[in-house]
Amino acid sequence: MIWNKDIECMSRDNMRKLQSERLRELVQRVYNNVFFYRKRMDEAGVKPSHIKSIDDIVKLPFMYKQDLRDNYPFGLFAVPMKEIVRVHASSGTTGKPTTVGYTRNDLKIWKEAVARCFTMSGIGVEDTIQVAYGYGLFTGGLGVHYGAEEVGASVIPISGGNTRRQLQLMTDYNVTALACTPSYALHLADAMAESGIDLDKLKLKKGFFGAEPWTENMRLELERKWGIQAYDIYGLSEVMGPGVSNDCMFHSGLHVNEDHFFPEIIDPVTKEPLPEGEEGELVFTTLTKEGIPMIRYNTRDLSMLNYEKCECGRTLVRMKKITGRSDDMLIIRGVNLFPSQIEHVLLELCETSAHYMLYVDRQNNLDTLELQVEMDETKLTDTIKDLQNLSKRIQHALNSAIGLSVKVTLVEPKSIPRSEGKAIRVVDRRK
Ligand code: DLL
Q: Which residue's CA is minimally distant from atom 4 of ligand 1?
């Protein structure tokens, strides 16, 4: 099933025409209505009349998270407040948060974008969806909620946390799809196994996971633990929220709703656009958003694009599953490392649980990396020799995969803090 076949299967030529039309209109609109954009464009010597087609997008300056912070709370709004019907904000790890506002039409588009994603994952009127993303300023809960209602599914808006209740409702209400972060899905799966609920009694068939990086191996782990099909939903509040892209049943990249969110890939260092198939930072332009339009917003998420038609029939460009953010990259003794590389190795080995933490430190001017990973409860051993051998096997696998010697500490099951939202997996004590 395809939610909006005209758009999702549109020829590449027609898609570019549509994008060109929308970009022209957008640039004129923000130039007229938003001081920030007019100033940036004037400084760059670009006028709206210079933007004739989507290819001219490269003439426009980039935007960064800092621009949203500098214009907090409403400086980037392109419409008067009376036209704004909803406000969300980013969780914001440091400094000021970033605020985003939506017009009625923005919410309509957002709902449709998420509805396309749900349909891509085969979710519809027959389904009961438990939305365990947080409701509130975070876009996860409400964003997914309205898309789920749009496809006619029955929605259980439980929000994050309260694990026992999550399991209870999932069982009592015959929930068929779970929407939450992959780290919380892992925690819920462990809690379910512990509670003795029989997996066969559950009706769960699909997971709708996102909001944080997770590896292909984590997908397999979640599919195995829950006995489901796991789908990847991507998005960010600056651009809209969940629903920017999603993978279909072929899991070969996430289809971007590019009639609304135009993607580019740029070199993380030179900021030059990169061709199809090369990995770099993902940049988005919101072609239709009214409340707070974003032009060439650098997400810092790392991905690559593929314009080939998918086996599912969609022609929407696909972005590769996110490997991490360029600002999450650790540099340890000169070696670049993403936490996802560690996750990949651990789950490939399949000898521990999937719960881990990374501690980075500096001792005698030398970077050190410690991996703490929980033992698998079903494979606990008492002998020190067995434990030492397991640590060594993990060390060896990490060394050959990433070229770093890592101190591996096996810790007791359930000793690593669980997350109900986005997981924190790195503690960098060098800062
Ligand atoms: O996390 C929106 C969302 C909610 C997406 C629910 C999917 C499901 P923010 O809090 O603004 O918005 O965080 C956005 O989270 O730039 C990525 O770094 C990361 N992220 C989001 N989805 C994925 C994903 C929401 N599927 C930031 N894979 C983004 C990897 C993701 N990273």
A: 140
